[in-house]
Each structure stands twice: as structure tokens, then as C-alpha cells.
Amino acid sequence: MKICQDILSERKPPSASSVSEVMEKHTMEIMKKLESRIPLQIKSYSDFSREYMKLLEEIFDIDYAIENKMFGNFGMDEKSIKLLDNYLEMGSKFYTSNIDMSNEFFKGYLNMRLSVMESYNRFLKQFSTNFRTYPDSAKMKT
Asked: In terms of pTM, does the model score above 0.90?
């Protein structure tokens, strides 16, 4: 409770002269904060992906070493290796196809949302223009 009181006592009165200005100020502050985080999110994802690739390389280096030490003397049947390759190729194609489809779906989803926002923005601009040019009802009574 004391923390809330401290926060409330630290609040400054709004410097804006209207409700719309106050709302705009805080909305824009939030949007700018969110927008400022995009480069960090992209960098973090890139760093994660790079480390994941290093991890996979290390795993397969160990896998090669184990395969050579443990199974090197036995030799692997070419037919078995070919069957494994075919099986994993089918799985890889399935997953890469799903990645492509997901990417296209997400791209379409974002384009649709952008289109809706652009349409709504045009509507609001037209509404604003009409509202500003509409005769004032107080003036019409006289």
C-alpha cells in the first residue's frame, strides 16, 4: 500500500490542456517504448539462433567421434544409411514446408492487420474532415 502511495505522490499533474492530449501523450510513450525494443528482440533472436547452431555443430562433432570409435570397426551397411537418409529427407521436407507455410500465413496475417489499420486510419481522417466541416449545431439555431 505504501508503494502505491509513494507512486501516486510522485505523479506530476498533466502538462497537457485537454483529455485528448493527455491520452495521446501516454499512448505515444507506450508505443515508442515498444518500438524501441524491436532491435533488441531481433538481436536476441539472432544471438539465440547463432548459439543454437554452435550447439548443433558441437553435438554432431561428438556424434562423428563416437560413430568412428564405436562403430568404425563394424562398418555401416550402405542400404541402412540410404534408408535413414531417405527417411530423414522426407521429415526435413515436411518441416521446411511447414516453416514456409507458417511464414506465409504470418506474413498474410500481418498484411491483413496493416490493411485494416490503414483502412481505419482513412476512415478516421475522413470522419475528422467531415466533423470539422459540418456546420456547428449552435450556429444553425440562429
From this structure: no
